[in-house]
Write a structure and sequence with these properties.
By secondary structure, the chain is of the alpha+beta class. The protein has one domain. A 4-stranded antiparallel β-sheet has the order 1-2-3-4. It is globular, with a radius of gyration of 15 Å.
Length: about 90
């Protein structure tokens, strides 16, 4: 079942794609059929910079359990680091 529900956020960071590092300016998260992962549906996360083109893209196709574990791991890592350490104001 395709939901067509998509979450988009602006990013301030970098990603490494097929041609090297690029400024990551956008992320799209959605649940849909994967292109490569061997599952019927996955949580798909695309990190990209649309102004550069298709080479500035990192794609993830994760199971629901893995996506939730990744979200938890991100929150734990940030909570354990000194406040503001990964902020752009640092």
């Amino acid at each position: 079942m395709c939901t067509y529900l998509t979450e988009k956020i602006e990013l301030d960071g970098s990603g490494k794609g097929a041609t090297g590092w690029f400024a990551a300016t956008q992320a799209t998260v959605y649940v849909d059929h994967p292109v490569h992962a061997p599952y019927g549906h996955t949580v798909n996360i695309d990190v990209l910079n649309p102004q550069i083109g298709p080479s500035a893209r990192v794609a993830l196709e994760l199971t629901e359990e893995t996506a939730l574990a990744l979200a938890d791991a991100i929150q734990r890592a940030i909570a354990r680091a000194p406040g503001g350490l990964a902020s752009k104001n640092q």
